[in-house]
């Protein structure tokens, strides 16, 4: 009697261990931490450019006073790329009406991320212009297991080697629902890497989920969705 009770208990224990172990049906996601500031790192999900743009960081390509396109640049030092934050009230974040800002200039005035209207070929470039940017551009929220930049009503991002006014650059574009990525462009996600701030206080800066080291995430081990 005693020994059969024990073996039943051991079987339960074994089942418990088995169900806690990662399996194909219980995905594990890369661990997140939180920060008020982050850089955005491109994770190429299809059709990488040559040379590769994987782990390039989001920066700005100035085309006029206070006007810049969002581009990707190779990450050279820990300070390459712009520092961003989510601006809004908790309600703004909850209802996806927050905006994404970055400080710029010696006076550290805000520049915001916005999506430009589609051109004749349906392409929507992304700007980082002085001002508030655009409501509805934010970071994915719980229960999404991944933290990434997203546009309400959009379908992610892609990047292309484009000719810009002062020379070519890897330009970031926003994808509309149902839009195919143009040939020669790479599908990307923009993942937040926790960062120090600019030093300026942000009264409506929200704490955001971010990754300690995006380039170090082993996607053969972690799931996306
Ligand atoms: C990052 O890229 C890898 C390789 O393409 C892919 O397997 C993974 O799903 C991507 N993760 C995210 C969150 O985009
Ligand atoms: C850029 O590279 C530096 C130096 O290797 C590294 O510490 C940092 O995490 C990278 N930054 C981003 C945003 O990937
Ligand atoms: C930041 O968010 C607050 C709260 O919604 C808003 O009042 C303010 O205008 C925003 N600031 C900028 C620069 O967008």
UniProtKB/TrEMBL annotation:
Signal peptide: 1-20
Keyword field: Signal
Domain called DUF7907: residue spans: 35-194
InterPro entries found in the cross-reference section: DUF7907 (IPR057229)
This protein's name: DUF7907 domain-containing protein
Annotated organism of origin: Oidiodendron maius (strain Zn)
């Amino acid at each position: 009697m005693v020994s059969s009770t024990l073996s039943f208990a051991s079987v339960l224990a074994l089942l418990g261990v088995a169900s806690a172990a990662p399996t194909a049906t219980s995905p594990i996601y890369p661990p997140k931490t939180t920060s008020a500031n982050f850089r955005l790192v491109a994770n190429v999900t299809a059709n990488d450019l040559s040379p590769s743009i994987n782990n390039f960081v989001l920066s700005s390509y100035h085309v006029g006073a206070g006007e810049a396109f969002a581009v990707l640049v190779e990450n050279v030092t820990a300070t390459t790329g712009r520092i961003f934050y989510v601006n809004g009230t908790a309600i703004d974040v909850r209802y996806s009406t927050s905006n994404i800002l970055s400080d710029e200039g010696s006076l550290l005035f805000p520049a915001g991320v916005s999506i430009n209207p589609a051109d004749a070929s349906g392409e929507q470039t992304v700007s980082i212009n002085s001002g508030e940017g655009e409501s509805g551009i934010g970071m994915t929220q719980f229960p999404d297991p991944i933290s990434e930049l997203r546009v309400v009503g959009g379908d992610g991002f892609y990047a292309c080697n484009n000719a810009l006014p002062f020379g070519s650059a890897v330009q970031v574009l926003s994808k509309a629902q149902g839009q195919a990525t143009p040939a020669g462009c790479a599908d990307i996600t923009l993942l937040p890497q926790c960062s120090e701030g600019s030093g300026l206080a942000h009264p409506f800066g929200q704490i955001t989920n971010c990754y300690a080291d995006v380039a170090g995430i082993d996607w053969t081990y972690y799931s996306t969705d």
